[in-house]
């Protein structure tokens, strides 16, 4: 049932009253006041530019473009401290950003110049309940922490494929994993959230308590409050059947056809998924497709990837591994590149994807002089069976994807070295992906779905969600944050339209 302001007024009244009074878009004096107030109350948990750890905190990001210079950094250790910080931020009309794992490559979504950065890295709760097969997770954790905590119980969960990705960002925007086809996305496996609202109030959202907020947090991103605890549903898992494959350029057409066949044949019967990518070196002209495949099976090589293991490969490693061993080898180190994502969603048409790959390599050659250029062509499956989980669990999610068709996401992941090339690379990526999407629209191959985690900051993920879901999410946002704190003071990232 959709909450109204009247229904949650008692919760709003119990928080810091100043939150209800704010009207402006923040002030520099307000930021200074908030930093002073935070330092007075938490002298050992506030950093400024003169602090020893300031630089390491301001660069604790995957994408170099996310580096910024906040006026101060607050490092809370408890949900109560987060709530107190919210009251101080809002009462001072201070702009702020919130960081979980720092992996979102949307500049300003998790860091801020001349504002307050609330860094959640000390909220490291990891409590497993073996009876219910759930785990309570703090927003300072990364997925490798979660997998390590679950492993002694023979449990596993849906989360990030790379070990250093943070829990909160991925879970709030959706969440790709290898086994989405069977269990849904990471957001679909959350059974409860603890949330600090804009006025400092704590609420617990689940299927029976604040059910509207519960629904909105499943894919609605950072529009409603700061989540201080996620309760995730886990499942029993023994060894994983894994395969790592790389190929030469001559295998590109067969590789892409194998990807499309994999997507088209995906059902919920066996959990299986992969990271599909093709690396291109614009200097040496070397092309290298690769596969990181995982299946819920005790057979090696994993049967679902037989189309790939049948290809002539340059590297082929298939083995049974436990969950922690698999994830501990997969890392995306911070501060390697400036990174721009762009993607679109389409039917898994192999011939068309092959054409797009060829267009992409030619386009990469046009920007080959960009320093530190590191281009990758990425493919991700969005199967109907993954969407079916939300369609059938009685809760749903903000995406509202139909469960009638298997889709394929094609993505450009572009790394480079110098800020001077930011506009050039972003414009190049935007033009190229838009050109391809226009072709797909004309051919009847396109979906308008855009996944926040693989999107450029110029893309609009809300436009591709189910009709009515965005308006519903906006009403929930307005009920829980009536003065617009998470629109006007915390404005970075993919925010709901006004």
From TrEMBL:
Signal peptide: 1-18
Listed InterPro entries: FAD-bd_PCMH, FAD-bd_PCMH-like_sf, FAD-bd_PCMH_sub2, FAD-linked_Oxidoreductase, Oxid_FAD_bind_N
PROSITE patterns: FAD_PCMH
Pfam families according to UniProt: FAD_binding_4 (PF01565)
Domain FAD-binding PCMH-type, chain residue ranges per copy: 66-237
Keywords: FAD, Flavoprotein, Oxidoreductase, Signal
Xref: PANTHER family: BINDING OXIDOREDUCTASE, PUTATIVE (AFU_ORTHOLOGUE AFUA_1G17690)-RELATED (PTHR42973), FAD-BINDING PCMH-TYPE DOMAIN-CONTAINING PROTEIN-RELATED (PTHR42973:SF53)
Family assignment from sequence similarity: Belongs to the oxygen-dependent FAD-linked oxidoreductase family.
Protein name in the entry: FAD-binding PCMH-type domain-containing protein
Source organism per UniProt: Sporothrix curviconia
């Amino acid at each position: 049932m959709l909450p109204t302001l009247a229904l949650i007024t008692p919760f709003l009244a119990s928080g810091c009253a100043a939150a209800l009074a704010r009207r402006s878009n923040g002030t520099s004096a307000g930021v200074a006041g908030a930093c002073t107030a935070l330092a007075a109350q938490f002298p050992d948990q506030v950093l400024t530019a003169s602090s020893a750890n300031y630089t390491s905190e301001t660069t604790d990001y995957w994408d170099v473009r996310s580096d910024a210079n906040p006026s101060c950094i607050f490092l809370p250790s408890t949900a109560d401290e987060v709530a107190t910080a919210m009251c101080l931020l809002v009462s001072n009309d201070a702009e702020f950003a919130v960081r979980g794992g720092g992996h979102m490559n949307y500049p300003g979504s998790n860091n801020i110049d001349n504002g307050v950065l609330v860094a959640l890295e000390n909220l490291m709760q990891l409590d497993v309940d073996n009876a219910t097969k759930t785990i309570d997770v703090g927003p300072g954790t990364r997925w490798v922490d979660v997998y390590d905590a679950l492993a002694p119980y023979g449990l596993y969960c849906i989360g990030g494929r790379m070990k250093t990705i943070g829990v909160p960002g991925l879970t709030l925007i959706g969440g790709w994993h290898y086994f989405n086809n069977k269990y849904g996305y990471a957001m679909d496996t959350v059974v409860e959230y603890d949330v600090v609202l804009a006025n400092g109030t704590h609420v617990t959202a689940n299927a029976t308590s604040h059910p509207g907020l519960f629904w909105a947090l499943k894919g609605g991103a950072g529009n409603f409050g700061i989540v201080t605890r996620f309760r995730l549903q886990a499942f029993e898992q023994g060894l994983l059947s894994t395969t790592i494959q790389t190929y030469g350029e001559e295998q590109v057409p067969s590789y892409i056809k194998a990807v499309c066949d994999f997507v088209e044949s995906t059902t919920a019967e066996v959990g299986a998924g992969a990271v599909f990518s093709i690396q291109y070196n614009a200097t040496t002209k070397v092309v290298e497709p690769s596969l990181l495949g995982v299946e819920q099976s005790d057979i090696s090589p994993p049967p679902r990837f037989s189309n790939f293991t049948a290809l002539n490969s340059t590297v082929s490693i298939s083995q049974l591994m436990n969950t922690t061993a698999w994830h501990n080898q997969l890392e995306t180190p911070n501060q390697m590149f400036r990174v721009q994502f762009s993607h679109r969603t389409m039917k898994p048409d192999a011939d068309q994807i092959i054409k797009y790959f060829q267009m992409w390599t030619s386009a990469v050659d046009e920007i080959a002089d960009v320093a530190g250029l590191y281009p990758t062509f990425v493919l991700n499956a969005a199967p109907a069976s993954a969407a079916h989980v939300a369609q059938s669990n009685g809760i749903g999610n903000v995406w509202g994807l139909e469960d009638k068709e298997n889709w394929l996401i094609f993505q450009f992941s572009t790394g480079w070295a110098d800020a001077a090339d930011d506009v050039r690379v972003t414009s190049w990526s935007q033009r190229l992906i838009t050109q391809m999407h226009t072709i797909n629209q004309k051919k009847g191959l396109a979906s308008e779905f855009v996944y926040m985690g693989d999107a450029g900051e110029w893309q609009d993920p809300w436009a591709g969600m189910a009709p009515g879901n965005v308006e519903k999410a906006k009403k929930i946002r307005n009920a829980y944050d009536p003065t617009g704190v998470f629109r006007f003071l915390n404005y970075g990232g993919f925010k709901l339209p006004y």
